[in-house]
Amino acid sequence: MKKTFAFIIFCLVSVMVHGQGEALPENERSRLCQEAEQYFTEGLELSRDGKKTEAAEALDKAAARYERVASDKTFANGKLFYNLGNVYFLKDDLGRAILNYRRAERYLPFDKKLQDNMAFARSRRVDVIEEHEQKRVMKTLFFLHYDLPLVWREGILLGCFALFWAALIALRWRKDGWLRWVAGLSCIVAVVFGVSVWMSYRELRQPPAVIVATSVDARKGGSEAYDKSFEKPLHAGTEVTLTDDNGGWVEIRLGNGETGWLPKDAVGIVE
Fold it and tell me: Cα 193 vs. chain centroid, distance in angstroms?
């Protein structure tokens, strides 16, 4: 029991420090988002009129403003990343579009428009890489861990932890059977989601990422001096996992388990 309590306390402390950083003033954030929306609308209209140069300039301004807001690590908003993904998709920047759709998915996991846009963006990727069968089985068996965003699982953990101790306190005065059931079930759920949150923090050591370079050759080591890992280059939008980092280069693992090294600026980290 003591070990379980200590573990849950560790998860709670991790949740409390998660996402701390310097905040952008709310009025500045609101102004940037409004301007970004205006430039996006302008770019969309110009694109429809066939004015590609003017449209690109407007979309660049929209992306710059959304990126400024997104750089505020204390402000997590799925709609922001969704809008940024749409801007990049309209700019034909497939890598950054999928990257920001993946970021938005953490907060809007069941948003149909987001899922449709991301599916369409993925369908336009050059690289077709089948996910390893073992990974697909794990996602099916532990769907709560993979399908629910981290912030949701953190919230469930906190809620069940509070409910567990509230039930224990109530049991000191009343010995009702239903209170024992509440305490037992909330403890089990808190432990399950505590393990899930802990695993997510461990997975951050090997975070998901998306290739944002238009085309890049993977190497067998962390520099241009190494031979190529694959016959063909990898392209924008390919989703990978980061497994190592030597400063200027990162080691990536593809969905099929194959690995290689890429320049660090060729990938964008989802989390």
Answer: 18
Distance CA 102, CA 271 (A): 9
Res 172: pLDDT = 84
Helices (H) and strands (E) in the chain, counts: 10, 7
- Torsion sign (Cα): 238, 244, 245, 249: negative
Single-letter amino acid, residue 112 = K
d(CA 173, CA 87): 58
Residue 78 contacts residue 104 (beta carbons within 8 Å): yes
How many Cβ atoms sit within 10 Å of the Cβ of residue 114? 22
Dihedral over Cα of 143, 148, 152, 153: its sign: positive
Tell me: pLDDT of 62 over 60.
yes
Q: How many residues does the chain have?
A: 271
Superfamily of structural domain 208-269? SH3 Domains (2.30.30.40)
Share of the chain above pLDDT 90, in %: 59
Collect all residues with Cβ–Cβ distance below 8 Å to 230 and sequence separation of at least 6.
217, 218, 258, 260
Tokens of 115: 């899922």
Residue pointed to by tokens 């024992």: 180
Q: Tell me the average pLDDT across 158-184.
A: 88
Q: Are 101 and 114 a contacting pair, CB within 8 Å?
A: yes
Whether residue 182 contacts residue 169, with contact meaning beta carbons closer than 8 Å, is answered with: no
pLDDT at 130 (0 to 100)? 79
Sorted by where each begins, the domain ranges of the chain are: 24-123, 134-203, 208-269
We find that the CATH architecture of domain 24-123 is: Alpha Horseshoe (1.25)
Distances (CA, A) of 111 to 102, 104, 117, 154: 12, 10, 10, 20
Count how many Cα atoms sit within 13 Å of the Cα of residue 132 in the half-sphere of its side chain: 12
